[in-house]
Design a protein that fits this description.
With about 150 residues, the protein is of the alpha/beta class. The chain has 2 domains: about 1-75, 2,3-Dihydroxybiphenyl 1,2-Dioxygenase, domain 1; about 90-145, 2,3-Dihydroxybiphenyl 1,2-Dioxygenase, domain 1 (Roll). The protein has 3 helices and 8 strands. The chain has helices at about 15-25, 40-45, 100-110; strands spanning about 5-10, 35, 55-60, 65-70, 90-95, 110-120, 125-135, 135-140. It has a 4-stranded mixed sheet with strand order 1-4-3-2. A hairpin with a 2-residue loop joins strand 7 (about 125-135) and strand 8. The longest helix is centred in the first third of the chain and has 12 residues, at about 15-25. The model has no long low-confidence stretch (mean pLDDT about 85).
């Protein structure tokens, strides 16, 4: 039985932009960017072809989970699948204190496809949510249930 989520890996062609936005708006701290063996990454993720080495950066200290940003040029954006459901990781969600203020900061930073805020009731609790696309990754922001 797992104790917690260790990390989530996000693939983008725009790693520097995504890292800067996550640091500047959400306050995540990035460790150094390191180059890892592309063949090892391909084996783990089931890819057939990748660059010889791949830059990766870990954000967060592990206390609340970590986000690994993997940069792969010319990757197909998950936000480019149209309006039909697809398998795979759809979004990366963060718990924030103020959804409206977070969305405003992302608009100011040039985020695309900003949506919300919306009130969503699930499992008997109300949650305020919004989302934005940065570096072809959909980010969701939600308050704790009330």
């Amino acid at each position: 039985m797992p104790r917690s989520v260790h990390h989530v890996s996000v693939v983008t062609a725009e790693a520097a932009h995504l890292i800067a936005v996550l640091e500047n708006i959400l306050g995540l701290t990035a460790g150094p960017t390191v180059r890892v063996d592309g063949a090892a990454v391909a084996c783990i993720l089931g890819w057939e072809t990748v660059p010889t080495t791949i830059p990766t950066t870990i954000l967060g200290d592990g206390a609340g989970g970590m986000v690994e940003i993997i940069e792969v040029p010319e990757v197909q954006p998950s936000t480019d699948v149209g309006s039909q459901p697809c398998s795979g990781v759809f979004q990366l969600a963060f718990n924030v204190r103020d959804v409206e203020a977070t969305l405003a900061a992302f608009v100011e930073a040039g985020a695309q496809d900003v949506r919300g805020p919306h009130d969503v009731v699930a499992y008997g609790a109300s949650v305020r949510v919004g989302s934005a696309v940065v570096a072809d990754i959909r980010l969701q922001f939600a308050t704790s249930p009330s």
